[in-house]
Amino acid sequence: MSDMRIHENALQTILTHSRSRAGDGQEKAGFGDFLSRSLSEVNHKIVAADEAAAKLATGRDASIPDTMIKLEEANISLQLVMKVRNKVLEAYNQIMRMQI
Length: 100
Prior knowledge:
By secondary structure, the chain is mostly helical. It has one domain. The chain has 3 helices and 2 strands; from the N terminus they run αββαα. The chain has a two-stranded antiparallel sheet with strand order 1-2. Strand 1 and strand 2 form a beta hairpin. Helix 1 packs antiparallel against helix 2 and helix 2 packs antiparallel against helix 3. It starts with 7 loop residues before the first helix and ends with a helix.
């Protein structure tokens, strides 16, 4: 699962480019911010699952049920991210095919 980690630089780039500014200088939360927070949360779940699996493999203080729950949470979160990505790409392709 460590290959599926999202790099912090990529998250920082998404966060930087997705912020929109209000007229008074305050930041508004937009879709990009939501997406960035969600990706960060998924990344933390994957890291926690990796750590739990490593603890279980080395025999350190880890239980099998807790490790399996963490692994499944990370797996389901990653599947959701992939489905959202596919839907966004599908919407983008439909927009690109529209006649003006």
